[in-house]
Amino acid sequence: VAAGNSTGLAVNSPANCVGAIAVSGVRHAGTKVGYSSLGPEVALAAPAGNCVNETGLCLYPLLTTVNAGTTTPGANTYSDSVKSSLGTSFASPLVAGTVALMLSVDPTLTPAKIKMALQATVRPFPTTGAQAVDATACGAPTATTQVECYCTTSTCGAGMLDAGSVLARVDGLAVSLTRSASVINPGVALLADGLGTVVHAGRSVASYQWTLVDSGSGARFIGAANNPTVSVVADRAGKYALSLAVTDSAGITSRTNTEISVPRAPTVDISALTGALAAGQIAGFSGTASQADEATGRAIVGYQWSIGSASNSAGAFISGPSDAATVSILPATAGSFLLSLRVTDSGGLESTAVTTATAAAAPVVVTPPTSGGGGGAMGWGWMLGLASAILLLGRRQRS
User: Fold this and answer.
1) What is the pLDDT of residue 377?
2) What is the pTM of this model?
3) Nearest CA to 297 among 347, 241, 237?
């Protein structure tokens, strides 16, 4: 079913009906064509034609047979750059024709198996090559239109139709791609293999070929990319599609691919819980606003606070636990100190932030004279000295 031509808005009926195989439209470069609808209901994408008509002619129409008749059959001819054929209504028949070929090979295929085979053998969406230099990744549909954008698996379907690969799969060449993880940290190698590939009886695997489609992760192979197993590493956050094409001894090729995510390092946020700092007064700081890459299932699981010195350094101490989301700080004297927070996410990625805090001098407490003999109220300086002595004693006992 055609996804629709609502310029990036959500797919409508019948494409969003249960059981439908919705097809979105891509341009000649593989990006979402401006008019195509999108959304999580889409199963896969296929060419839909696009004009890029800077010359007055439609440069990339779908060439197909047409009929000149309006109410009755007329002259048979072909579409061209003047009488162009465009739309997701031209993308969906490409998938329907492929399904017809699949059923000619195996008439017992169910709709569920057909959809699974189509999605298992798609080609990954490209992440470069858009005509619009400011093109970004397609977003979830809203009330705002989206023109050309880079398709994702949650907006344009699992990938782009590969008729040859899906027919090879139905004919007995089922490519298997397993990997050690779906989310890996930057710099950590991912291992993948195609050892579970099944070929038609009487045939054997002739070759393996791995490819990468990168979207910002700086992914690369470690070693050869034509073995049954492969190792991949990514340098930075992003996503990439890992694709495996297998050719059998009869020269038939089929492929499959998987998406790998590389999370960004957590962001650290240090915020004060109290007002201005003053010597001798405990102040609270929080790191609860720190965030992990939730899109990859990460969460903050560890906090570690520490104090360093700065110019005009204050004698500041951590009062209580230093490994909680919040911390209590006691500046013993006026001056500045460095407060550091290191957070760790559930995948082991760490980030650290440092902020400079400045404590003002302790407020002067004026104690009125008392009548009678023998002593008086303890002054502020005496109490501050006692507090410093207690803290110093505590630190010596812990060490």
Assistant:
1) 42
2) 0.78
3) 347
| Dist CA 84 CA 64 (whole Å) | 9
Tokens of 315: 């004698």
Contact between residue 24 and residue 141 where contact means Cβ atoms under 8 Å apart: no
The CA-atom distances, in angstroms, between 316 and each of 62, 361, 390 are 72, 13, 13
pLDDT band at 378 (very low <50, low <70, confident <90, very high): very low
Q: Alpha-carbon distance 49 to 9, whole Å?
A: 18
- The predicted pLDDT at position 395 comes to 42
| Token pair of 122 as six digits | 């798609």
**Phi, psi (rounded to 5 degrees) for 78:** -125, 155
3 state SS of 257: strand
Q: How far apart are CA 267 and CA 287, in angstroms?
A: 10
DSSP class of residue 313 equals B
Using the structure block, give the residue that is written with the tokens 């004279």: 369
In sign, the C-alpha dihedral spanning 194, 199, 204, 208 is negative
Question: CA neighbours within 13 Å on the CB side: how many for 171?
Answer: 18
The H or E element spanning position 259 is: strand 253-262
**Prior bond of 14 cis (ω within 30°):** yes
Tokens encoding 263: 């999370």
Contact 239, 259 (CB under 8 A): yes
From 33, 34, 37, 47, select the one nearest 3 (Cα to Cα): 37
- Mapped onto helix, strand or coil, the DSSP state of residue 50 is strand
Report how far residue 328's alpha carbon sits from residue 336's, in angstroms, rounded to the nearest whole number. 16
CB 127 within 8 A of CB 160: no
Q: What is the pLDDT of residue 7?
A: 96
Burial class (CB in 10 A: 0-12, 13-18, 19+), 156: buried
Helix, coil or strand: residue 311 = coil
Please state, rounded to an integer, the average pLDDT across all residues of the chain. Answer: 90
User: Alpha-carbon distance 224 to 203, whole Å?
Assistant: 24
For the chain, the first-to-last Cα distance in angstroms comes to 72
Say which residue, 386 or 317, is predicted with more confidence: 317
- β pairing state of 316-319 and 300-309: unpaired
Given this model, what pLDDT does residue 366 score?
61
pLDDT tens digit sequence for 57-87: 898 999 999 998 999 999 999 999 988 899 9
